[in-house]
Input
Amino acid sequence: MIPYGRQSINQDDIDAVVEVLRSDFLTQGPMVPRFESAIVAQCGGGVEAVAANSATSALHLACMALDVGPGDVVWTSPITFVASSNSALYCGADVDFVDVDPLTWNMSVEALATKLADAEVHGRLPKVVMPVHLCGQPCDMAAIGALAHRYGFKVVEDASHAIGGSYGGAPVGNCAYSDITVFSFHPVKIVTTAEGGVATTRDPALAERLRLFRSHGLTRNPDEMEWEPDGPWYYQQVALGYNYRMTELQAALGVSQMTRLDEFIARRRQLAALYDRLLEAVPVLKPHVLPNAQSAWHLYVVRVDAARRRALFEAMRAADIGVNVHYIPVPSQPFYRRLGHDPAHYPNAQAYYAECISIPLYYGMTDQDAQAVVTALQRSL
Ligand SMILES: *Cc1c(COP(=O)(O)O)cnc(C)c1O
Output
């Protein structure tokens, strides 16, 4: 079976984790700050990074740091993993969706502009807009940033797919057009810590709030306390936070993996280019990347005739090719329908969902594997 995605763990990764097991700290030691520094370096500096035990937690922390609560609305893409929108629901806020662009499959900037103009009239502007860099392809962040400036909302980039990607020549995560960016380090993503996530921000006050909520709402910083500390042992709980901390084992794996990020991205880019070439004669729609962006190539999705997608999926699985579907539109999930969402409001997302199929793409894949995938695809079609 050629899986659709798979982690790459080498001896250095294993040694790094074992070393932590023999050390004094399994949690709250030196490795988490080192991992955070590696992320800051990847983002080109100018940001702070706050690691958490998953991207889901980091997205929740991001919403909390931006004061999202009951009465607020958060907008995201209907084509994403449920964690994006769930993070706003955790805060008691409402969620709404902006249809995707038929070409990039990311949140449509035109649909966003139209929905904002309408929301302004009805006094229901979003507090936060959460674009998702689907498959690793950056959204049109300059345009979203301009709308944020005009309408006064905050921007959280769900960059779970996009570490190593770039937009406008700058690395994803540098928050040039957003308040917070979140990465995921789940094993199917580009770099892994087994489970893990990081939030980056240019705003030191937001970084402080992310750290506060990551660990119970406790602070040891006298400047954040409501009265003078009783003594050197003192801490105060000043907010209701969670235990969303990353362990030292995860961070050590992350530090080791980050040294291979460039290699991971280069190979993914090579494989994507190979697919582009091999698929030229195949009747599928290939991914589109904005001219001023570089995808991190988390996923390679093609669109096929909707009437044949199911049979194609089954034929590929029967041929031991681990295809997948990313994603089922979130507003069509029973939980979201119960909240009153209707997937029919997002026709581009529905059309995308009917046709999309993710074919295998991961660092350890060989050119022969890619050729086998395309041959199976041709035969199945
Ligand atoms: C994987 C993923 C998440 C959640 O990441 P975890 O680290 O598994 O919590 C959130 N959003 C998107 C788009 C993802 O793909």
About this structure: Residues 11-258 form a domain with the Aspartate Aminotransferase; domain 2 fold (CATH 3.40.640.10). The radius of gyration is 21 Å. The first strand starts at residue 48 and ends at 52. The longest helix spans residues 261-278.
